[in-house]
Amino acid sequence: MEMEEGEGSTEEKYDVEIATTASSLGGSGVFHIINDILGFVLYMHQQIPSVLQDMSLDFDGLQTEFTDLEAHLTQPDVKPVVRRKLLSSKREVKHEIKKMQKLMTTISTLQSALQLLIREAPDIQRVVLILGGSPLRPQKAYELLFTRGDNGLSFEGDFSKSKATEALSKKTIRALISTGAGSTSCPGPMRLFVLVQAPPSLNLPQDFLPKRDFRYNRKFVPLKLRFKCKTQDNETNSPFNSGTNDLIWFQCRHIVPCPLKLIEVSLSLVNNTQASILAGNRSTLLRRRKKMIFKIEDVTVYFPYDNIYPEQYEYMVELKRALDAKGHCLLEMPTGTGKTIALLSLITSYRLSRPDSPIKLVYCTRTVHEMEKTLGELKILHDYQLTHLGAQAKILALGLSSRKNLCVNSKVLAAENRDSVDAACRKRTASWVRALAAENPNVQLCDYFESYEKAADNALLPPGVYTLEDLRAFGKNRGWCPYFLARHMVQFANVIVYSYQYLLDPKVAGIISKELQKESVIVFDEAHNIDNVCIEALSVSVRRVTLEGANRNLNKIRQEIDRFKATDAGRLRAEYNRLIEGLALRGDLSGTDQWLANPALPNDILKEAVPGNIRRAEHFVHVLRRLLQYLGGRLDTENVEKESPVSFVSSLNSQAGIEQKTLKFCYDRLHSLMMTLEITDTDEFLPIQTICDFATLVGTYARGFSIIIEPYDERMPHIPDPILQLSCHDASLAIKPVFDRFQSVVITSGTLSPIDLYPRLLSFNPVVSRSFKMSMTRDCICPMVLTRGSDQLPVSTKFDMRSDPGVVRNYGKLLVEMVSVVPDGVVCFFVSYSYMDGIIATWNETGILKEITQQKLVFFETQDVVETTLALDNYRRACDCGRGAVFFSVARGKVAEGIDFDRHYGRLVVMFGVPFQYTLSKILLARLEYLRDTFQIKEGDFLTFDALRQAAQCVGRVIRSKADYGMMIFADKRLPLQTCRYSRHDKRSKLPGWILSHLRDAHLNLSTDMAIHIAREFLRKMAQPYDKTGTMGRKTLLTQEDLEKMAETGVQDMVY
């Protein structure tokens, strides 16, 4: 038969006809029928080892087989001939695991693509499943025809499988088997292609591409199935009466590879003794696959994995101590040891053990990527708890982010940045905009927000764990705004995952986190830089461009005031009366009208009456103009100036006549005025918001801040660029409300050493403070300290040495030698962007960069996020294809903080120099002075602590699990001290313990030649097989039985 685009006949015959009494199958029904027939085709033609529903079990079986073989290879009494056969079987099983993993991923992607297709084109009529080498050379083909009912295909909203659909699928499979479908196997492994007929307007280029010239070979006849819905007449069921000629063929880009068969280790390969051992241990392995349930004192902990690391167990014990004491804790956990799942397991289990007083978990992360990873782990844990406890374990957990990350309105998302998206949202959701739209239909509103508002109290999330993508999908499905839905559900959620700023930045926390109860447990993950986050939340910078923008804002505000005086003077009078009562009595605002909260004022101050000189709108504008004029005069300086907030406010009062109390209320007074004037373009008013933020902070705090005015950047003294900075020096000011308000705050990271410094920086007393080591059966971390090149000349990034040709040459030769020895990926970190640019330019001129590129491809981090993301993607592709690559990055940059270079993406990381802060910075010098006077922290101690935590964070990118391995090179020596910075004990002691425990004395003070020799030996050692579970008294993977013994003897008795 030949089938071309648009051809067909109503007389067409079908091998199988399935009738249903339903008026239409619906989108969900069509999807599940296609999915079930797809599984039938693959399984019956012996292309996959089992039906789709059981493939995960087969995958688990292969993994169990692999673990079984590994366990027996470590036994000392295995004969050489048996060992060789077991090794061969292990390689085969490992190969099959990779193939099955690829197959499962492809099928999952194909299923997602079909769901997207049905959402975009719910009236698809033909689907063809082709098994063969290509669509033009099919071995088997199944053609599915879905005829329209009275209402056509209607998408039901979700893809849950109804009982009627399940019955229809079973009926279809039975009919196919009765016709002999699948009774013959294909000659060898095939590939499965999916083609659909859909309207030409279908736009899913990531999943479907048009295939306009598709046709079968003339001699080939497919097996045809038709699904007939309940109809009024024959014409209704004709597939070619309703615009079929307008449809074209699309081929799915996700092609299913099928060269798979189950590999079983034949017991005949081994002698009877080994066979009995293998057979006997299967029951043990099956028991271990039941995951873990164990007790820590009175808490039953549900842990969703087969084994647990000793340090994970200890982490849970210490965390429970802190929760029992209702106090705060500091916990340093080595990178790659499952800190997140240990924390989630303990706290959710702790909550289940105390149903009378359930606690709420607030989990704070630095990035959206980390937020999604945390919610992914929580999903696995929640599913495991549901299987054991049922409805008792149900929770509501969600991630909360900005409008830009949650909005589903395409017109709003078209805005350039986050602030513009916020403003575009307010233009469609503000209460006065919606009131105006009731009178003027031309005013644009957000359909999603309107649907959410109409649902009112019924707009709720059912129990479950929701990532940002899940929230967007749920909102789009229901037609509700995901952002405001998530904001509303925060008060009901058991677990909330969001950014640090939602708790530490007073302007945001005053809106998002104000309703959290005291019993909440707050977790700051990856909190090694938490002091810097706190300081940034309370620091403000003002430049000339800020003042110019603020003046434009005031002009526009003045115009709006004049307009309201002429049209609605009553609103301004009403606002004046409210301000006499106090800012706290402004009345409850709707969620759409809420603005950023005050950055500093406590509630008791907000109850005071607003000073009389800023109650009237025009008077407040006049005060702000005088403030701008004063700030502009302060920027006209040729010298660096530094003064305290008290001195600054006194000078401001004497020259501009603005009192301290007036400054305190500036931020909220501006908020009130913008609400009264119904201003929605908040992104345009950022400059005046910055000025009022500055005024409120400088009027509130007398200590912990400095005002620093610099006429230019010291690194570019010839370019005038005056800046006035209100710099916060005391991190405890931002986090103190969190410690005071909540009963337990957990600060955790992989790099908190020295751990005793954080309580001093943050001014709190932890009830538990603990640093854990990493349990290992092999030394998979190899840190080295390199102090000189092959020519014995020292290397350092000290300012007066970093441009020395000998240092630059030796750094380059080190990298040239290393890329010739180390396989796959190499990551290099420099102390700054300018230093990286300069040294790479020199390497290019001297030919060193060419030598590097002969071995591996080279990629760079830039200050542009899009460029860096593209470079990282290509870097990974180069490592995947075996070419290998080098990635140049910067300490304190985005890559150093949030990107993992696990497995072959990072076998070596080189830290060129010590990433000290710019020590001539006036802001840094002021902070050092404050730390010395207030907390008795010496300048040198803090600088070293800060530099080495950044260095540790950089090198820690290379190890992300215990099965991983990698080398770390710290390359620096400081001549005046006649010793290596990294080699000195006072410096090394500030590195995390899990790095120090592997830093041998023989690996200190190395030359390039010595480092190359150590690298070769380390890589040779890592290529040898090893026991992952631990032997000879070094248990690194604990089973259920191990934990039961530990409960009797105590955790301190475990040797690792």
UniProtKB/TrEMBL annotation:
Q: Which Pfam families match?
A: DEAD_2, HBB, Helicase_C_2
Determine if Isomerase is one of this entry's keywords.
Answer: yes
Sorted UniProt keywords? 4Fe-4S, ATP-binding, DNA damage, DNA repair, DNA-binding, Helicase, Hydrolase, Iron, Iron-sulfur, Isomerase, Metal-binding, Nucleotide-binding, Nucleus
Q: List the EC numbers from the record.
A: 5.6.2.3
State whether keyword Amino-acid biosynthesis applies: no
Q: Which reaction does it catalyse?
A: ATP + H2O = ADP + phosphate + H(+)
Q: Which PANTHER family does its entry note?
A: DNA REPAIR DEAD HELICASE RAD3/XP-D SUBFAMILY MEMBER, GENERAL TRANSCRIPTION AND DNA REPAIR FACTOR IIH HELICASE SUBUNIT XPD
Question: What is this protein identified as?
Answer: DNA 5'-3' helicase
- What species is given as this protein's source? Brassica napus
Q: What is the lineage of its organism?
A: Eukaryota, Viridiplantae, Streptophyta, Embryophyta, Tracheophyta
